[in-house]
Amino acid sequence: MSSPHDLGLPVPSPLAARSAVAVRGVALDLPEDTGTVDLGVSIPLHRPGGAGPSADGHVLVDGLKTTIPINPASPYRLRDGRLVRTGPDGGVTDLGVAVDTVARPAFYDLTTADGVPYEKIARLHGDDVLATTVVQTCVRYGEQDRCRFCAIEQSVDSGTTVAVKTPDQLAEVAAAAVRLDGVTQMVLTTGTSNGRDRGARHLARCVRAIKAAVPSLPIQVQCEPPAPSDLAALQVLKDAGADAVGIHVESLDDAVRARWMPGKATVPLGQYRLAWDESVRLFGPNAVSTYLIVGLGEDPDELVAGAAELVDRGVYPFVVPYRPIPGTLAFADGDPAPDPELLAEVTARVAKVLQAAGMRGADQAAGCAACGACSALSAAGG
Description:
CATH architecture of the largest domain: Alpha-Beta Barrel
Oligomer: single chain
Order of helices and strands: HHEEEEEEEEHHEHEHEHHEHEHHH
Number of helices: 12
CATH topology of the largest domain: TIM Barrel
Helix content: 25-40%
């Protein structure tokens, strides 16, 4: 196997490597005796589908949590603990990046007191983050309203999860995940409800139960911004014991929002700003975050400027690539993932803004930015 140095090629930066595999994924070698891929052997911790990182394997790239799409057409592979690239001539180049897989957690083998497998209640992300969608349905999932990149109800349809997780179930699973697998933080997200609180009060009930069982476990909650007449729902989350909050806008461009998120686009950006500002008041700066997705057609300069506006508000802009996930409207339409170089450029620019403000995802108590697996920001110092 050749290395970049052997071939006189530049060694890719950690950011370039993370961006490349985040977009193009990795192919898995076929065992000679079967001719089929056994994900459990190649990447023990993986997720087949759902609202968040889907059809992905969870690994550590140079020690950083990383979710990598599984893509048979990718030139990248994991081999002997390294990230390698295959060339058109069949040659294999070691890219100078160490990759460690994450073992299947022990808590997956347990069942709740009411008979539900723990794995259907919450899942391990990275090597120490417990994550779940507490309500796996969404009022915006009708075809005219659905976010085009989302497959939140797919995992319910496939039987890999249950539609609603109860506070008692979540507390039971969280306690076991901490005890058996060393989980250090938890993320609770939810599909949007019809209520003015957009599901925040059910999240609060879940947080309260989990904190009663595992008081030291930091928890991030994620939901749409509550209605302006019900911003008090954010105080309810704080009082329940939540440590951080994610209110995800995905894009600050209204034309992009209308195309990609027609249901969520009916919520004005002003309502997001109200919710962000109230959340920063309650939880503090760098304890509030939002997703910004690269690859939806937003002008890169405007995306970076929008990220800078968020940082000024004390909100962490978690920059991630659009990923074509089977079961989504965008995947069916053939919308491609962004160019890896564009992702790396935008990520690097946003990381500089974060560094100038002294904001790091790793400094957050819990949440997507604290985990960092779905973004290359951690590789760029953000």
